[in-house]
Each structure stands twice: as structure tokens, then as C-alpha cells.
Write a sequence for this structure.
């Protein structure tokens, strides 16, 4: 497999909005669920970006829109410079064949009634590779790449005969079999045993460097993001609150919500055993009627009355490639920062 | 697939109901297959039409053989011996150049406690000018010889032994049958003599190429293993042929309705929106339709042909058999990750429905299908017992209809009603028992979804 040295932007997401319409009595309009509300970020060839946020923050909707399982309501998604918002039929299939998808639950992601061979030959057959020898050659290559060897032991098994780690490798092999440019990984290790996690993460890292693969990594677990992401952004209530390089954000968080998220992630230190952690009060907000102004203000200790609850904060550049959407970082004023 | 089959067969052994069900079903399969060999299809249809030359030698409303097991006074069994079928022994004696004699001997055992109702013989003579001359002698087990009659049969000629009143006069008995079977030791003549009887038919031929064949029938009150009906038809033909017809009707209807219901439910779930609404509303309308009345109307006004009725049944049942259940299952399956994955690698809607949704529900299909078979078998029988059975095919339902309309139970012909009903019942039990066991085996797997 030849590694093309491509640079530049692979995926460009601009002011993306994904709204689901709510209906009353089956037809009357009753508002929108603003799952994704104005998200912009870029992803370069061969780079990885991580998206973190708690459940219900819109990260799954964002991911499904990138996979074009959902239609964007507003804004644009450009892949290699081409807008993919309204793709249909053959063009949509062509676009999807350039994206691999790794799901959270490997058992649910594999059809229980098919053998490994059938599972892996499906994407090939659908995308025009019908010759059985060619299929077999590519299946063997894919299984070798995810280190499921000997191939002949695995190929005729059903998913339930494999361990969780093996199942997830099959899912990765299936995502990689069409040689995609972008891999979308939705919490790929959260259902796996701790012992297998590192292996699977290393495998993804390996694929990224070997294949010049861009990875869009979605997780709520901050302990795994450091493995291979160059960039990271934090989502809250359908919006990005902070975007930065991985180390910058983890070592030097700015947004009060990022602080809360980081302090909530478990740290294997015995000193923490008896310590209570500071968690932001309240629940994540409703996406139907999001709070006015900054969406985090009802839960924020630093909220400025009269400001945060009225106006939505713009992005402030802290340093290169580190941007945060919070009034506290308004360079014209001098607020106490977390 | 093979491993699934193996697990199912090993698990089936632990369910007594499955063993019973499989046993009954295989019994019916054997019965259905043997029907084709014992009575070929065209012969069965011909027999069921009931023309005189096919069923003429059968008694009317004769009880089945097994009814004798439950009686202390055994009824005479109908007996047919025919030289056309190679029964009896025939010898040829040359008398002179042109004249010769053939002697046919029929030997049979008689063990009943009542006299047969009639004795008759049909001759088939072939000659040019002068018919052969036939003389019949009746030899009782104790060696008495009775002159039974003499005639010159012309072509096809039936001779009833009761025509010969000389026996009555000579022996001083009430009927010829009494004369032939009476036990002379007993003055009370109500009990026949048991043993081996012989009928000797000697024919004098006056031409070189003259031949004679004979067909002797002893009309009893018991006939075959299933008895006969009011039109002398052998019920075993209908009971035998009812089995493949019932199974074919039940299986074809069950397979096609469950398979189409499953496909419709999958389409309904996958496309959702107005497609789903339309399918669900149509389904709800069909649920309220009185399908039996509709089938009766079709049978009355359009056609009673079993294949037309089968088609109408399938159309009526596609939209009623379990669409909601399959829909509930597919709504669950639709949310599974592998469907989403299939969409991302570009599987078409049809591919998702047929290769991703439906195979997941297959384990549900098998028990549902098996349990549905009796429903359709009973529908066919119900229609037939309303007089809307297929006009030519012998089926269990038609036997029940005949039995009911001829007051079988009131007249003591309980076997007439009992036999087809028992067969229907056993077929129903067989499929239901197997279906229940399969359901127990398959359903825990479905709970994993």
C-alpha cells in the first residue's frame, strides 16, 4: 500500500448545525433539538483530532453528520475541498467509501449471523470488488494488518466465538478494508477490558502513521485521548467551548468547563481516594431551549452576571492554535480566571 | 448455519413435546408420501368421483376393520376375490376337440359372528357365438357341497346368489346367505359356521378361444381399514390423500404468509415515515376483516378450486400474521451498530433489508411458521365442511362434510366422522408441539438482541 504524502486540509467543517425537528401530533412544528449548533474545525491529512464532552453534548450527532448518516441543517462539510452536504446515491457511496467507521460496541457492530469472511467481504462487494480471489487477498491483508493471525483460524468464525478485543479488531479491519483517508472512531475502547485497550489504541496509532490516516476520535474518557491525537476540542451543549493542541489543553486548560471535565476524570493516585472532587452543579442543559448567552453559565462558578447570561462569547485566541469561547478571556477586561 | 442446525437438533432431544411433534409429523409425511404409491393421484380422483364400475363392488356405509377389535360379536369383513387380479386357482381340462372346461377355485376364511349381507359374482366372458356354461358349487368347512347356481354369462354378467331360490327351497332357510353359512349342528340358525369355505366355478367352453374371468364379492359390514361412505367410496382413499393435500396447503400458506409478513415488516421499519404508516394502517384494516366469511364468499361465488382458495388465504393472511411482532423486533434490530456500519460502507436499502435485517429475525421465523401450519390446515377443513371443499380432490374436510350432512353420528357411523377429525387433531398437535419446543429453543437467543 503506497503512502501518499499529502498535506493540507482533509476535512473542513464550517458553522455546522444539525437540528432535529420536534413535532406535535405528528405534524405541527414544536421546535428543534439543536444537537450541533455552529461547530467549526479543520482536520489535516494524517492528523488526529479528538472530540470530548459528556453524554448528550452533540458529539455523536457531529460524528454521524460527518459520516453523512445525518443531513446537516446548516453550514458546510468539505472533504478534500468538495462540499458533501447534499450528496446522494452513487456520489454518497463514493464519499462514504473514503471513511472508515469504528463503533463503540464491537459485538453490536458485527452481524452475529455472518462469518468474519462474510463481514469483511460485504464492504468490498458493495464497492465494486466482486472477484473472490481479490476479496480474499484484501481480507487477508486487512486481518494481518490488525494482527489477527493466523488468518485461517479466524476467517470462518462467527463474532460470538471471538473475544471483545478480537471483535474490535474485526471492526477496525472492516473500517480499513476500503483503504479510507479518514477514520471516525466513536469511543473505540470504552467497551473493552483495560488490558486490551492499550493494544487497540496502539494499533490505531500504528495505522495512523503507516497509512497517513486522519482520525476523528470521539470520547468522553480523557485518559485515552493523549495516545494519538494532535488536537482536541471540548464540546458543551452542541458547541465547541475550547479547541487546542492536545498537551496545551490537558496541561493548561482555560475554559471553566474544561477544568471541571479534567478534574472529574479519574487519576490513579491514592491521595485522591478520600478527596471529594469539585463537579459543576446541575445538569447539562436542554438542547431544545438552550440557555441564553453562554450555555455553560448556569453551572459556572465564574459567571459574570449581566454578561454571560446575555451574550454568546466569541472565540479568543490564547496562544497559537488555542482558542476558547469564554468572556473571562476578553483581553479588554480583567476577570479572575480559573 | 450448520452449527445452528446442530445446536437445535441436540436441544430438541430435551423437549418431550418436540419428540412427540416430530414423531407425528414424520408419520404424516410417511402417510403423505405413501399415498402417491398406494393409490396414484389419477386413480384416487377417479375413485372419489364414485362411478358404479369403480366402487360397485364396495358395500355402502361399511365399518372399518378396526371396529371389529372393539366388538364381541365380530362383523363379516367384505371380501373381494377376482381372477382378473390373479386370485383363486384356475385349471384347464380338455374334454374333446372343441370343448374344454376351466375350473376356478376361490378359498377364503370366514370368522364372523353374523351372516354376510350379500354374495355376488361378476363374469366377464369372451366368445364368438356360443357363451360358456357356468356351474357354481359352494363347499362348506365341514365338506357339504351345495349347488349354488348355473348360467351362461353374456359378456359382462352379474349373478347374485340370492337370485337362486332353489337353495332356499332345498335347505328350508330364509336366505341364500343363511343356507351357505349356517351351522347344521345348531338348530338356532343365528350363528354362522366358521372355517375355510370354497367356491368352485366350473365353466364349459364350446369354442377354442373362449375365455371367462370372474370377480367374486362377499358383502360384509366391515370394509378396509377406514370403512366406506354412503356412496360406496373407500374412505381410506380420502384419508390417505387428505394428508398430502392438508400438509401442502398448510405448509405453502404458512411459509408464504410468514415470509411475506416478515419482508413487509422489514420494509415498514426500514423506510419508516409514510411507508410505515400506510403498511400499519393496511395491517390494522386487515386485522378487522372477517376472513372466514370472505373465504366463504370466494368459495361460493368464484371458485372452490383448492389452489384459488390457497391464494386467497395467503393474500388475506399476509397482512394479519404477526406484522406487528416482526416490526417490534426490527425496530430493535435497526438500532444495532452493524446496520449503521453497513450504511457507512454503502449498503443499499434492499441489501440492508434482505441481508442485514431479515437474517437477524430468521430464528423467529421457524417456530412461527411451524406453529402456523395447523391454522391453515383447519381453514381448509372448515371451508370443506361448509361444503366449499375442492370439487374433485378427496380431503379430510370433505369427508367430515359428507359425514355431517348424512347424519353419520346419529346413524351410528361414528367412524366416518371420527377418522378425519382424529387425523386433523393429530396433525395439529404434531405441528404445535414442535413449534412450541422450537420457540423455547430459539427465543433465548432472541433475548440477547
Amino acid at each position: 500500500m503506497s503512502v501518499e504524502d499529502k498535506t493540507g486540509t482533509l476535512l473542513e467543517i464550517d458553522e455546522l448545525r444539525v437540528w432535529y425537528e420536534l413535532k406535535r401530533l405528528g405534524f405541527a412544528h414544536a421546535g428543534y433539538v439543536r444537537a450541533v449548533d455552529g461547530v467549526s474545525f479543520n482536520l489535516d491529512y494524517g492528523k488526529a483530532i479528538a472530540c470530548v464532552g459528556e453524554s448528550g453534548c452533540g458529539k455523536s450527532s457531529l460524528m454521524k453528520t460527518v459520516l453523512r448518516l445525518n443531513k446537516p441543517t446548516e453550514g458546510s462539510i468539505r472533504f478534500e475541498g468538495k462540499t458533501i452536504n447534499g450528496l446522494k446515491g452513487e456520489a454518497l457511496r463514493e464519499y462514504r467509501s473514503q471513511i472508515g467507521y469504528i463503533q463503540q460496541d464491537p459485538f453490536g457492530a458485527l452481524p452475529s449471523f455472518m462469518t468474519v469472511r462474510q463481514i469483511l467481504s460485504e464492504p468490498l462487494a458493495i464497492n465494486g470488488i466482486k472477484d473472490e480471489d481479490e476479496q480474499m487477498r484484501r481480507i487477508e491483508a486487512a486481518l494481518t494488518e490488525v494482527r489477527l493471525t493466523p488468518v485461517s483460524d479466524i476467517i470462518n468464525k462467527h463474532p460470538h466465538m471471538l473475544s471483545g478485543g478480537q471483535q474490535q479488531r474485526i471492526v477496525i479491519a472492516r473500517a480499513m478494508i476500503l483503504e479510507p483517508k479518514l477514520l471516525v472512531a466513536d469511543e473505540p475502547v470504552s467497551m473493552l477490558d483495560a488490558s486490551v485497550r492499550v493494544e487497540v489504541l496502539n494499533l490505531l496509532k500504528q495505522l495512523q502513521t503507516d497509512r497517513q490516516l486522519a482520525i476523528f476520535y470521539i470520547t468522553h474518557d480523557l485518559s485515552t485521548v493523549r495516545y494519538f491525537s494532535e488536537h482536541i476540542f471540548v464540546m458543551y451543549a452542541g458547541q465547541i467551548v475550547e479547541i487546542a493542541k492536545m498537551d496545551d489543553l490537558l496541561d493548561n486548560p482555560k475554559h471553566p468547563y474544561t477544568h471541571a471535565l479534567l478534574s472529574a476524570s479519574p487519576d490513579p493516585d491514592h491521595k485522591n481516594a478520600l478527596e471529594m472532587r469539585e463537579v459543576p452543579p446541575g445538569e447539562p442543559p436542554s438542547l431544545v431551549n438552550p440557555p441564553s448567552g453562554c450555555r455553560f453559565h448556569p453551572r459556572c462558578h465564574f459567571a459574570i452576571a449581566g454578561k454571560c447570561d446575555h451574550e454568546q462569547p466569541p472565540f479568543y485566541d490564547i496562544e497559537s492554535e488555542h482558542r476558547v469561547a469564554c468572556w473571562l478571556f476578553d483581553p479588554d477586561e480583567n476577570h479572575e480566571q480559573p | 448455519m450448520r452449527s445452528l442446525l446442530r445446536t437445535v437438533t441436540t436441544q430438541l432431544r430435551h423437549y418431550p413435546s418436540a419428540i412427540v411433534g416430530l414423531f407425528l409429523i414424520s408419520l404424516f409425511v410417511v402417510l403423505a408420501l405413501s399415498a402417491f404409491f398406494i393409490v396414484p393421484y389419477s386413480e384416487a380422483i377417479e375413485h372419489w368421483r364414485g362411478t358404479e364400475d369403480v366402487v360397485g363392488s364396495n358395500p355402502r356405509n361399511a365399518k372399518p376393520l378396526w371396529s371389529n377389535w372393539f366388538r364381541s360379536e365380530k362383523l363379516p369383513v367384505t371380501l373381494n376375490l377376482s381372477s382378473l387380479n390373479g386370485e383363486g386357482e384356475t385349471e384347464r381340462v380338455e374334454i374333446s376337440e372343441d370343448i374344454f372346461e376351466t375350473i376356478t377355485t376361490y378359498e377364503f376364511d370366514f370368522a364372523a359372528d353374523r351372516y354376510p349381507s350379500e354374495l355376488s359374482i361378476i363374469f366377464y366372458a369372451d366368445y364368438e357365438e356360443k357363451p360358456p356354461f357356468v356351474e357354481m358349487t359352494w363347499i362348506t368347512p365341514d365338506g357339504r357341497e351345495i349347488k349354488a347356481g348355473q348360467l351362461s354369462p353374456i359378456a359382462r354378467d352379474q349373478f347374485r346368489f340370492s337370485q337362486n331360490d332353489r337353495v332356499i327351497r332345498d335347505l328350508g332357510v330364509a336366505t341364500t346367505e343363511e343356507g351357505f353359512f349356517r351351522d347344521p349342528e345348531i338348530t338356532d340358525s343365528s350363528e354362522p359356521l366358521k372355517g375355510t369355505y370354497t367356491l368352485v366355478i366350473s365353466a364349459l367352453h364350446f369354442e377354442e378361444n373362449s375365455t371367462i374371468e370372474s370377480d367374486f364379492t362377499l358383502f360384509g359390514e366391515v370394509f378396509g381399514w377406514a370403512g366406506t361412505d354412503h356412496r360406496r367410496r373407500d374412505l381410506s382413499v380420502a384419508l390417505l390423500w387428505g394428508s398430502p393435500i392438508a400438509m401442502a396447503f398448510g405448509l405453502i400458506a404458512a411459509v408464504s404468509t410468514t415470509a411475506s409478513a416478515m419482508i413487509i415488516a422489514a420494509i415498514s421499519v426500514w423506510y419508516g415515515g409514510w411507508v410505515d404508516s400506510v403498511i400499519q394502517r393496511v395491517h390494522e384494516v386487515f386485522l378487522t376483516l372477517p376472513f372466514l366469511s370472505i373465504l366463504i364468499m370466494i368459495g361460493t361465488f368464484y371458485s372452490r378450486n383448492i389452489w384459488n382458495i390457497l391464494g386467497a388465504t395467503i393474500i388475506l393472511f399476509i397482512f394479519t400474521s404477526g406484522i406487528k411482532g416482526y416490526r417490534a423486533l426490527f425496530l430493535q434490530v435497526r438500532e444495532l451498530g452493524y446496520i449503521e456500519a453497513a450504511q457507512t460502507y454503502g449498503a443499499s436499502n434492499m441489501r440492508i433489508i434482505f441481508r442485514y435485517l431479515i437474517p437477524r429475525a430468521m430464528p423467529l421465523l421457524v417456530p412461527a411458521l411451524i406453529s402456523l401450519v395447523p391454522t391453515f390446515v383447519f381453514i381448509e377443513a372448515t371451508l370443506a365442511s361448509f361444503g366449499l371443499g375442492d370439487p374433485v380432490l378427496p380431503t379430510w374436510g370433505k369427508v367430515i362434510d359428507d359425514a355431517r350432512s348424512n347424519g353419520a353420528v346419529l346413524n351410528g357411523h361414528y367412524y366416518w366422522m371420527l377418522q378425519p377429525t382424529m387425523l386433523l387433531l393429530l396433525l395439529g398437535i404434531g405441528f404445535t408441539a414442535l413449534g412450541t419446543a422450537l420457540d423455547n429453543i430459539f427465543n433465548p437467543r432472541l433475548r440477547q438482541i
Q: What stands out?
A: The interface with chain A takes residues 3, 336-338, 340-348, 351, 355-356, 359-360, 362 of chain B (CB under 8 Å). The mean pLDDT of chain B is 88. The first strand of chain B starts at residue 79 and ends at 82.
